[in-house]
Amino acid sequence: MSGPRSPRRPLVAAAGIAALGVAALGVATPPAAEGATRAKAPARAAAWTWRLPPNFPTPRVPRTNPMTQAKVDLGRFLFYDRRLSGNGTQSCSSCHVQSLAFTDGRARSVGSTGEVHPRSAQSLANVAYNSTLTWANPSLVRLEKQLETPLFGERPVEMGVNDRNRARVLARFSRDRAYRVRFARAFPRSRKAVTWPHIGQSIAAFQRTLISGDSRYDRWLDGRARMTASEKRGAELFFGERAECHHCHGGFNFSEQVTYAGAVETNRTFRNTGLFNIDGAGAYPEPNRGVFELTGRPQDMGAFRAPTLRNIAVTAPYMHDGSVATLQDVVDFYAEGGRNVPDGPNAGDGRASPLKDPLVSGITLNDQEKADLVAFLGTLTDRAFLTRKSISDPFRRR
Ligand code: HEC
Ligand code: HEC
Question: Which residue from 138, 266, 267, 339 has the highest number of Cβ atoms inside 10 Å of its Cβ?
Answer without folding.
Answer: 339
